[in-house]
């Protein structure tokens, strides 16, 4: 018989041998998920023996899924973003730590406003950015918008998961088209759009290319298709003096700044991620 610690060490060893960088964390997450335990419970159970054969089978199957390339977030069905647990599945991108810069900058702009601020999270995916704002700026009113019906369902599940339904709603909307009628105006729009150039998609890591939704990755021939459409079509939904915040890919910030400037935005600033890549662009609509 094996203890929980034996199983964890074996899983970690297998993941490490496969070249998975976060093998330690991912082994813990997968085993906790397969055994129905929290990571804290798993730590406290280190010396206990696992006697349930179905549990052992579930652990092995989950590890095999990871070794076959499936992201751990999809295996366990949840990922953390800005301290919040986010339900995820293959209809939405897995939240990245780089995207926390987008949420952080939005929160800084909204934090000390005296009035209730209305915020649109466009191309919302699982809703992580908008929900992080709602959790940290309690007076805000957030609309999560995505073209995918399945993604909107995940947004709603995350609203409930984090008890934020009171000041957050989710709708279907196409970022490439004009805003829906009666949507109203916003003090801020935040957006992490698809920005991978089409030609680059095939070179992405298989865990991204084969599992994450292509429609949330492909930004057109130069990766800038969504930025042009949003800066043009959605400016009518932004109040004068309101802010537009974009996440962008490596090497795209200069072009995104130019697109925003041409669309009437001023005081445009960039913010770097942990790798010193200019990751977030912030602009104010001239009033």
Structural notes for this entry:
This protein starts with a strand and ends with a strand. α1 (4-17) packs across α2, α2 (23-35) runs antiparallel to α4 and α6 (100-110) packs parallel to α7. The longest helix is centred in the N-terminal third of the chain and has 15 residues, at 53-67. It has two domains: 2-68, Helicase, Ruva Protein, domain 3 (Orthogonal Bundle); 83-285, Vaccinia Virus protein VP39 (Rossmann fold, 3-Layer(aba) Sandwich). A hairpin with a 2-residue loop joins β3 (78-81) and β4 (84-87). The protein is elongated, with a radius of gyration of 21 Å. It is α/β, with parallel strands linked by helices and 287 residues long. The strands form three sheets. A seven-stranded mixed beta sheet has the order 7-6-5-8-9-11-10, with helices on both faces. A two-stranded antiparallel ribbon has the order 1-2. A two-stranded antiparallel ribbon has the order 3-4. The protein has eleven helices and eleven strands.
Describe, in short, the structure shown.
This protein has 287 residues and is α/β, with parallel strands linked by helices. It has two domains: 2-68, Orthogonal Bundle (Helicase, Ruva Protein, domain 3), CATH 1.10.8; 83-285, 3-Layer(aba) Sandwich (Rossmann fold), CATH 3.40.50.150.
In the CATH scheme, what's the topology name of the largest domain?
Rossmann fold
What is the CATH class name of the largest domain? Alpha Beta
The count of β-strands is: 11
The protein's oligomeric status is: single chain
End-to-end span in angstroms?
Answer: 70 Å
From the alpha carbons, calculate the radius of gyration and give it in angstroms.
21 Å
- SSE series: EHHHEHHEEHEHEHEEHHEHEE
Q: Give the overall form.
A: elongated
Helix content: 25-40%
Main sheet properties: 7 strands, mixed
Calculate the mean pLDDT score and round it.
94
Across the major sheet, the strand order is 7-6-5-8-9-11-10
CATH superfamily of the largest domain: Vaccinia Virus protein VP39
How many separate domains make up the residues? 2
Helix count, DSSP H or I runs of 4 or more residues? 11
Structural class: alpha/beta
- What CATH architecture of the largest domain would you give? 3-Layer(aba) Sandwich
Low-pLDDT residue spans = none
Strand content: 15-25%
């Amino acid at each position: 018989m094996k203890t929980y610690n034996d199983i964890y060490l074996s899983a970690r060893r297998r993941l490490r041998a496969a070249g998975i960088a976060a093998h330690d964390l991912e082994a813990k997450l997968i085993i906790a998920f397969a055994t129905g335990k929290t990571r804290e419970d798993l730590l406290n159970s280190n010396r206990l023996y696992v006697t349930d054969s179905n549990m052992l089978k579930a652990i092995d199957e989950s590890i095999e899924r990871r070794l076959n390339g499936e992201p751990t977030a999809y295996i366990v069905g949840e990922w953390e973003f800005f301290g919040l647990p986010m339900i995820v599945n293959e209809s939405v991108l897995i939240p990245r730590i780089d995207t926390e810069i987008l949420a952080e900058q939005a929160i800084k702009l909204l934090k000390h406003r005296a009035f209730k601020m209305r915020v649109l999270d466009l191309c919302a995916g699982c809703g992580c950015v908008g929900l992080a704002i709602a959790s940290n700026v309690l007076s805000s009113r957030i609309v999560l918008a995505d073209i995918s019906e399945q993604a909107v369902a995940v947004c709603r599940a995350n609203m409930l998961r984090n008890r934020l339904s009171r000041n957050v709603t989710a709708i279907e909307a196409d970022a490439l088209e004009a805003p829906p009628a009666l949507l109203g105006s916003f003090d801020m729009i935040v957006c992490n759009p698809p920005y991978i150039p089409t030609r680059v998609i095939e070179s992405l890591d298989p865990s991204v290319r084969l599992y994450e939704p292509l429609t949330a990755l492909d930004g057109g021939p130069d990766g800038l298709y969504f930025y042009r459409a949003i800066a043009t079509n959605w400016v009518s939904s932004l109040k004068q003096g309101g802010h537009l915040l974009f996440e962008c890919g490596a090497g795209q910030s200069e072009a995104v700044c130019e697109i925003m400037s041409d669309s009437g935005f001023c005081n445009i600033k960039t913010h770097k991620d942990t790798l010193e890549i200019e990751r977030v662009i912030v602009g104010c609509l001239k009033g």
